[in-house]
Design goal:
single chain; 251 residues; alpha+beta; 14% strand; rod-shaped
Length: 251
Amino acid sequence: MVTPLQYGDPTHVGPITLQARLRTAQAGLVYLGQAPDGRVVSVAVLSSGAALDAAARDRFVTAIREAERQGRTGVLGWGATLVDRMRGRGTPDTPPVLAMHDDGPAPWVAVPYAPNAPGAERFLDPVTVSGTLIGQRHGPDFLHYWQGDATPAVPGPPAPPPPAVATRRSVVLASTLLATLVLVLLVAAWLLLFRGEDEQEPARPLPNTQFVPSPPPEPASPVPQRPTPGPSGSGSESPWPMDLDDGRGPI
């Protein structure tokens, strides 16, 4: 069953690019990859626990070397039964080795990939043993201390670099800019909320006064008044002029 690569899986083993997981065995993992010439391959890698076990690592490397030698000379390789060894035949399900790395703490092997056909997982089978006889193993089953470890021995891609750390100067500048922006926002809010209530609208200016000059007063002669009549029988002269009432005087 093909599954995507998981965190910690390598993306390359040697010149081969790994693309997905094919299966997880007791002794390691099998990947689907592509060789530099474009061929699809199956790649077997020991788990980190099995790679630390010198005996398990030696069984894996021995199976790879014997299969590679069998492909070159036709001599039997690892995994043949006792009868097959006596007859000079190898197991028919051992795939040919295309590339391998049998040195170091993380060996691996690559074989051609074919759906529903034996792949590189055949080289992981001899790593877990359950008996002591040569050929088909017999005896009580037991678990190796490293079984259940699904971490590949081949290291994965390096972790991304940590984010850049800001310098002290940039932090101070950013803090100053932020404080200035906050202060401007507070002043603007205060002007909008409180300043408008205190200020009154200025009074409109009064219109200009228009002065219309009045004409100067004209002098007039006084009107003569009639004299007040004196008491009757007095010898005083009547204050009424004679020309009034045709000279008859007061009645």
